[in-house]
Design a protein that fits this description.
By secondary structure, this protein is α/β, with parallel strands linked by helices. 49% of the residues lie in helices and 17% in strands. Strand 1, helix 1 and strand 2 form a beta-alpha-beta unit.
Length: 330
C-alpha cells in the first residue's frame, strides 16, 4: 500500500533469550530511509526476567502489560499504534529483511483485511525443531492465496479492521489468532497468505515442553470451537483428519478395558491402527520432500501429540461441564 505507514507490535513475556535477535532484525527495517515501518512497540506482558533490560537497549516503545496473555498484550499494542497498518511478529521470531515488503502489496486489494507469512527455523540442530518446522512448511505450501485462518507470528492487519472487530478476544489464552480470523471473515473481509514472507522462529527443542503446550492447545480448542461452530472440519492450515486425531487418541485409551473380553478385544487395536495410519500421508510427504530418513520420526511425534492434545481437550470438556453444573446450582 503506497504511502501507508506501519506500526510493528511485538508482545513478549520472559523472552530475554530471544528478544535481542528479534529486535536486531527489525531495527534496520525501521531505520531504512524508504521503509514503511514507522514505529516498533514492544508490550512487556509481565516479564520477570531481563526482558525489560534488553528492550532498553533499543529505540523502541515499551508498554507494560498485565500478564494476561498474548491476546491482551497485542490489544494493548495495536491500540497504542499511531499508523493505519499493524504488523505483528512474536518475540521469538527473527524477521527476514523483506518480510514486511512481501506482505504489503496484498493490502492493495481493499477487501483484504490482513495477510500472513511463513516461518524459518532458528534451531536447525534440533530434531524436534526441524520436525515442527518442516510440518509447518509442508502445510504452508498447500495453503491458497486466500485463506480462512492466519497465525499471529507474522501477520499484517489494517488497524481500522482490528478496531471494528474489537481486536483479539482476551478470554482465549490459546487460539486467539484463529478466533480473530473467523470474526474478521464474518465481518465480510478477506484474508491473504504469502509463503515468501518469512520470520525465523525459535521452535521448541524440549519434547516435554512442546507436548505440554499441545495439551494447552487442546484445552483451549474446546472453548474455541464451542464459541464458533462450523470450523471443526478444518481450515486453510489443518484438515478434518488433523482435528479427528485427538478424539481418536482418547478413544484408544478409553477402549483399552475391552481387551479383557475376547469378542471385542480387537476394537482398541483397530482404533490404534486408524490413528497410526493417519500419520502416514504427512510423514511420507515430509520424507519425500526432505529426502532424509530422520523425518520418519515425525510419525512418532505426531502420534504422541494426538494423545497430549486429546488429554487437553478432555480437560477442556470437563472444565466446561463443571462450570455449567455450578451455574445451574446457583
Amino acid at each position: 500500500m503506497a504511502g501507508e505507514q506501519v506500526s510493528l507490535v511485538i508482545p513478549g513475556r520472559n523472552c530475554a533469550a530471544t528478544l535481542r535477535p528479534c529486535l536486531d532484525a527489525v531495527l534496520p527495517i525501521l531505520e531504512s530511509q524508504d521503509s514503511p515501518l514507522a514505529e516498533i512497540i514492544f508490550v512487556n506482558d509481565g516479564s520477570t526476567d531481563a526482558t525489560a533490560d534488553v528492550v532498553a537497549e533499543f529505540p523502541v516503545s515499551c508498554l507494560p502489560g498485565r500478564g494476561d496473555g498474548p491476546g491482551a498484550a497485542r490489544n494493548l499494542g495495536w491500540r497504542a499504534a499511531r499508523y493505519p497498518l499493524v504488523w505483528f511478529i512474536d518475540s521469538d521470531c527473527v524477521s527476514q529483511p523483506d518480510a514486511l515488503d512481501v506482505l504489503l502489496p496484498h493490502l492493495d486489494d481493499p477487501h483484504v483485511a490482513g495477510v500472513g507469512g511463513s516461518y524459518g527455523n532458528m534451531c536447525p540442530d534440533s530434531l524436534l525443531a526441524c520436525l515442527i518446522h518442516e510440518e509447518i512448511v509442508q502445510r504452508h505450501q498447500a495453503m491458497p492465496a486466500r485463506v480462512n485462518f492466519l497465525a499471529t507470528f507474522n501477520v499484517l492487519y489494517r488497524r481500522q479492521v482490528l478496531q471494528d472487530v474489537s481486536g483479539f478476544d482476551e478470554r482465549f489464552l490459546k487460539g486467539q489468532d484463529a478466533e480473530l480470523s473467523w470474526r474478521i471473515l464474518e465481518a465480510g473481509h478477506a484474508l491473504a497468505f504469502d509463503i515468501n514472507s518469512r520470520v525465523a522462529h525459535y521452535h521448541p527443542t524440549s519434547w516435554l515442553s512442546y507436548f505440554r503446550t499441545q495439551r494447552q492447545q487442546g484445552y483451549w480448542r474446546v472453548k474455541l470451537h464451542l464459541s464458533h461452530s462450523g470450523h471443526s472440519a478444518g481450515d486453510s492450515y489443518s484438515s478434518a483428519v488433523d482435528h479427528l486425531q485427538p478424539p481418536l487418541a482418547m478413544l484408544v485409551l478409553a477402549s483399552l478395558p475391552l481387551t479383557l473380553w475376547p469378542y471385542v478385544r480387537w476394537i482398541p487395536a483397530a482404533l490404534a491402527f486408524l490413528l497410526a495410519a493417519a500419520q502416514i500421508p504427512l510423514t511420507w510427504r515430509l520424507v519425500r520432500r526432505k529426502r532424509q530418513a530422520r523425518y520418519l520420526a515425525f510419525a512418532v511425534m505426531s502420534l504422541l501429540r494426538s494423545f497430549w492434545r486429546g488429554v487437553g481437550m478432555t480437560g477442556g470438556i470437563l472444565a466446561i461441564m463443571r462450570r455449567r453444573r455450578r451455574s445451574k446450582s446457583e
